[in-house]
């Protein structure tokens, strides 16, 4: 090798090392240049010691023809006897190697020196060749050691920067999570207070009217009815909260029995129809649907929740259709509730079933809610070994479907 060639390549190498921003890039660019400088060598490898087996595995490999990293082949420890101290740096030089595991990979000679990677010593930077003679001059060896030291320094810098970046990213993520949780907590307190205050205000207002006794018989009955409805609403909200807290620690308690899902749908639809006359709530039940073993009260809870959402989120009323079908070769039944309401943005689908999630859509914010209904539906359906999903289009309507095994 002549001096100008070495110097030029060394400058290129320095530049490549300084410009590399990832370890992979550093490995690729520097090792191709190392091979250019030592053109009699065929490959550059980094060997990692495996102490239990007294072998090295190839941690990284760069060939002058094609690149293949992390090849898992093992080579025996290099005998101490061949190690030489070269200006205080241990160097192994092997010529005409007679070692089956090395010859297998076309390695006939090699030069190696220790480097440290990720604060671990004992890795070896190895240049190998299929030539039987190494024919390296003293200057070549000096250069090899210089390159190894330079590589070690730049590689650690990149790894440190990478680790720091990783740390920063992790901290940033944690920060975002904390901020999201804080926002969720604030929303939750707002929602709960609002939810509890509305029926409570009705109860207080109406009961005050009763107390003032300025009412005749008929209106006191109507007022008592209003109080009853508000108290029922309050009770159902508190039940939801308690439910979700209880199932967190105890899971869902299932009361399984043979159920006629068609009948459950009919009862629920008829009840909602009589209460919400402005809606057209209908059902289509497929013929010969099977009787299934499930928890009827929980299924009814899911159904009521989904129909009540369809009503809540359909300000211009419209049709609500509940269907029962058989799918998956009679292995599952599927119940769907379709409305013509405000619909849901696709981006929100994945969050809908999270506890306390409510859309930011002003039309949703206008209606009161705790964001627990769908989360409870999902938990119940999962406990009953089914699945629940949503299809929707903003301003067109939504379809919530759940399956139950037969
Ligand atoms: P809540 O109705 O109390 O807000 P849910 O868990 O039942 O809580 O629903 C979560 C959110 O999903 C709602 O706030 C609303 O944004 C959306 N959503 C649920 N059902 C419908 C529906 N049928 N149409 C449009 N949006 C819906």
Give a structural overview:
With 406 residues, the chain is an alpha+beta fold. The protein has 3 domains: 3-166, Beta-Lactamase (2-Layer Sandwich), CATH 3.30.450.40; 181-250, Signal transduction histidine kinase, dimerisation/phosphotransfer (DHp) domain (Helix Hairpins); 257-405, Histidine kinase-like ATPase, C-terminal domain (Heat Shock Protein 90, 2-Layer Sandwich). Helix content is 47%, strand content 23%. It is built from 9 helices and 14 strands. It has helices at residues 3-19, 23-37, 100-103, 138-212, 217-250, 261-275, 296-312, 362-365, 373-383; strands at 43-50, 55-63, 74-76, 83-86, 89-94, 109-117, 120-129, 257-259, 280-285, 292-294, 319-327, 332-338, 388-393, 397-405. The strands form 3 sheets. The protein has a 7-stranded antiparallel sheet. It has a 5-stranded mixed sheet with strand order 9-11-12-14-13. Strands 8-10 form a two-stranded antiparallel ribbon. The longest helix has 75 residues, at 138-212. The protein is elongated, with a radius of gyration of 37 Å. It starts with a helix and ends with a strand. Residues 64-72 have low confidence and may be disordered. Bound molecules: adenosine-5'-diphosphate (ADP). Adenosine-5'-diphosphate (ADP) binds next to helix 7 and helix 9.
Layout of secondary structure:
Elements: H1 3-19, H2 23-37, E1 43-50, E2 55-63, E3 74-76, E4 83-86, E5 89-94, H3 100-103, E6 109-117, E7 120-129, H4 138-212, H5 217-250, E8 257-259, H6 261-275, E9 280-285, E10 292-294, H7 296-312, E11 319-327, E12 332-338, H8 362-365, H9 373-383, E13 388-393, E14 397-405
Parallel strand pairs: 9-11
Antiparallel strand pairs: 1-2, 1-7, 2-3, 4-5, 5-6, 6-7, 8-10, 11-12, 12-14, 13-14
Helix pairs in contact: 1-2, 1-4, 2-4, 4-5, 6-7, 7-9
The structure holds adenosine-5'-diphosphate (ADP).
């Amino acid at each position: 090798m002549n001096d100008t060639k070495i110097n030029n390549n060394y400058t290129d190498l320095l530049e490549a090392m300084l410009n590399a921003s990832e370890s992979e890039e550093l490995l690729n660019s520097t090792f191709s240049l190392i091979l250019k400088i030592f053109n009699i060598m065929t490959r550059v490898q980094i060997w990692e010691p495996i102490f239990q087996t007294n072998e090295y595995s190839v941690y990284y490999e760069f060939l002058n023809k094609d690149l293949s990293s992390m090849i898992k082949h093992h080579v025996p420890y290099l005998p101490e006897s061949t190690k030489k101290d070269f200006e205080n740096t241990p160097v192994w030089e092997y010529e005409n190697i007679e070692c089956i595991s090395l010859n297998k990979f076309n390695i006939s000679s090699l030069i190696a020196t220790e480097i440290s990677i990720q604060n671990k010593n004992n890795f070896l930077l190895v240049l190998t060749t299929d030539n039987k003679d190494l024919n390296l001059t003293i200057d070549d060896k000096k250069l090899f050691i210089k390159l190894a030291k330079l590589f070690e320094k730049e590689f650690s810098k990149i790894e440190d920067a990478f680790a720091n970046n990783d740390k920063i990213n992790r901290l940033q993520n944690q920060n975002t999570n904390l901020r999201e949780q804080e926002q969720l907590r604030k929303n939750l307190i707002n929602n709960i207070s609002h939810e509890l205050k509305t029926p409570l205000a009705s109860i207080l207002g109406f009961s005050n009217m009763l107390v003032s006794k300025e009412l005749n018989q008929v209106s006191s009955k109507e007022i008592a009815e209003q109080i009853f409805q508000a108290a029922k609403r309050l009770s159902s909200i508190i039940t939801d909260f308690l439910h979700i807290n209880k199932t967190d620690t105890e899971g869902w308690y299932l009361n399984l029995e043979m159920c006629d899902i068609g009948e459950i749908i009919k009862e629920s639809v008829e009840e909602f129809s009589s209460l919400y006359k402005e809606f057209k709530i209908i059902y289509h039940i497929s013929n010969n649907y099977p009787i299934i073993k499930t928890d009827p009260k929980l299924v009814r809870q899911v159904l009521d929740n989904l129909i009540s959402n369809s009503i809540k989120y359909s300000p211009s009323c419209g049709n609500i259709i509940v269907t029962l079908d058989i799918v998956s070769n009679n292995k599952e039944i599927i119940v769907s509730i379709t409305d013509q309401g405000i619909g849901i943005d696709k981006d929100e689908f994945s969050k809908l079933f999270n506890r306390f999630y409510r859309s930011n859509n002003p039309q949703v914010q206008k209606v009161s809610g705790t964001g627990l209904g769908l989360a409870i539906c999902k938990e119940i359906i999962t406990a009953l070994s089914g699945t629940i999903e949503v299809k929707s289009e903003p301003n067109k309507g939504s379809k919530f479907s759940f399956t139950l095994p037969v």
